[in-house]
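Translate structure to sequence.
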């Protein structure tokens, strides 16, 4: 199992996620080989499309000092 954390230094557009060995670096969630969660608007993306919008349920924009965990 893999696990990592980030600490938000500056609020704004930022994504966290996972990619496989075929990922081309377009931004996590922007191709078929990755998915990403956007901390600005609370969307989960893969293949360049939003697959879930959690902003109305649990999301608030990331703020300076927040610790974000990806498991």
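Result:
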């Amino acid at each position: 199992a893999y696990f990592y954390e980030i600490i938000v230094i500056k609020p704004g557009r930022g994504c966290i996620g996972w990619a496989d060995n075929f990922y081309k670096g377009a931004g996590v969630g922007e191709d078929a080989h990755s998915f990403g969660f956007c901390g600005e608007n609370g969307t989960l993306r893969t293949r360049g499309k939003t697959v879930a919008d959690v902003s109305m349920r649990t999301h608030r924009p990331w703020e300076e000092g927040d610790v974000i965990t990806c498991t």
